[in-house]
Amino acid sequence: MDKSGPQNELQNCLTYTSDSGNEFGRTVASRAIKSEEIVSPEMARHTPKSLKTKATKWIATHVPGRAHHHNHEHSDTGGTPWDTVHWSEHAHCAFHLTTSDLIDMRKRSSRAYLNVGGEHHEIMWKTLGNYPNSRLGRLSLSMDPLEIMQLCDDYSPQNNEFYFDRSARSFSSILGLYRTGHLHILDEVCVMAFIEDLNYWGLNECLLDACCLTRFVQRKDRMEEDIKKTSSTALPSTASEKFGQGKCAEFQRRVWEVVEKPQTSTMARVFAAVSIIFVMVSIVGLNLSTVPGIGETATNRSDPAAGGAGQWVRNHHLEALELICTIWFTFEYLIRFAACPNKQQFVKSFLNLIDLVATLPYYVSKILEACVDFSVTSLGAVNEIVQVLQVLRVLRVFKLARHSSSLQALGHTFFKSYKELGVLVLFVLIIVLVFSTLAYFAEREGNRATFSSIPATFWWATITITTVGYGDVTPQSPLGKFIGCICSICGVLVIALPIPIIVNNFAEYYQDQARLKKAAKRRERMEKVLAFGQENKFYARIRGEGPPELDASVSMDKTIAERSDKTSISFTNPTLSFTLTDANPDSKIYTDNNGGTNS
């Protein structure tokens, strides 16, 4: 194509429009330069960057045939007339839209024809004006071709139809907002996709009616929470990113899988079983240590300073058992900490904090016993401290939660339902205070010994609200019995209210865990594929006359067969069998497994 003629004419057009201030002509001329692929750096420098928009591209393509119209419109300004510009055949075939055309079309038809993703809709122009700040509202009020093409993706002059390259799934609901003033969301529409559609059309989710707004907010919050939970597991960092590379990193990864993932190997299952056995043995030893005659035995010796009282000696076998269990728990904690890729997250973990709190008291008690003097007073004080610290040993039972998904689900449910549990405790305290006061004043005349004060009546109100009813404290007067009946009924109602919410949280946790397990399995399969690919990939470049150039990373299902002279390499995969020959680089042969051969 000879570009010298059009370049000169378009350059004259740009000069004319720059001198006369004709922004319309500058737009047309600059777009014509781009559309005709006329390379002229000098002309490109004169083309404003503001003209390089989608609307400018459209109007410059559609407006050239209107040259005679604008020639008459600007004939008094002088300069090069518009009809002297020789436009391409592509430009002559286009239909051209101006502001006057828009006004005429609006006068001829009061309906707007919209095409959203191939779905046709009709609506009155004045109806679209109900929300003037939205995309369709601005479209109905605008008479500027440039602005219109910024609001829509395309325009068909033949059908007077505006095209929007969007999904039409929720567009009927959006048009219903313009018609009725009510916005509803269908159950089958994804809330995240609906939010994107609202943002595109320039509408706010607050316009949803009350019947749909609450459900929409709940679904949105649930979806955002699910995305947040799944994203960290579905797209995690690979093993090399978490542990690094090298033999030490590989050893650390394997140790971490043994101590943290019992399902990965036989050694991991054995380690988990041994850990559970030590936990059970420690709990049994703690219980036996409190049984008279087993945990402590009396001696015949008496200490005059203690008033001649007999001495109690702890069972040495249970002491040795506790020492062995503590050593195992310490070893387990240290090896978990050493193999963990994220030490900060490990320290903050609730189960790891339980392990630490349940193990440290043993060492603290031994240090106290070794540091103090052996006087009776000091030994008594140390013994009291040791007894208090031994209470923390019962926390070892929570170590079983590491190997039990049910216990983890229960703990997570309580943690997630802390608001409901807090409200429940508040209601119970209020009811206890109210009915304790009523029962005290009802029973203070005839049953003053039992209901001696309002705080003393708290016990009766608590066991009545929880429907336990020990019977150790009971009202005697008819009014007191009536208050007791009302108290028990209120307790049943208050305690039963948050139970469904807690049950729902428990069920949701199980569903989340099932989804996360699937995501984790997908991640593990992906890591295995990546690990296999790093060891067994062969990068081949195939050039020839048959298919186009191919740069492929081929994962081989068979071992690469390489000749000793290394002049020919062949390998296969499920779809193609390649043979590369160095002797004749111009001849590259590949065969598909269906029997076809190409070169």
Provide a compact summary of the structure.
The protein is an alpha+beta fold and 599 residues long. The protein contains 25 helices and 13 strands.
Question: What spatial form do the alpha-carbon principal axes imply?
Answer: flat
Mean pLDDT: 72
Number of discrete helical segments: 25
- Please summarize the sheet with the most strands: 5 strands, antiparallel
CATH architecture of the largest domain: Up-down Bundle
Note the quaternary state here.
single chain
Q: Rg, please?
A: 41 Å
Query: Can you tell me the CATH topology of the largest domain?
Result: Four Helix Bundle (Hemerythrin (Met), subunit A)
What is the number of E strands? 13
Strand order of the largest sheet: 9-10-11-12-13
Helix content: 55-70%
Beta-strand content bin = 5-15%
Beginning-to-end CA distance, first to last residue: 37 Å
Name the CATH superfamily classification of the largest domain: Voltage-gated potassium channels. Chain C
Organism: Clonorchis sinensis
GO cellular component, one term: voltage-gated potassium channel complex
Subcellular location: Membrane
Membrane topology: Multi-pass membrane protein
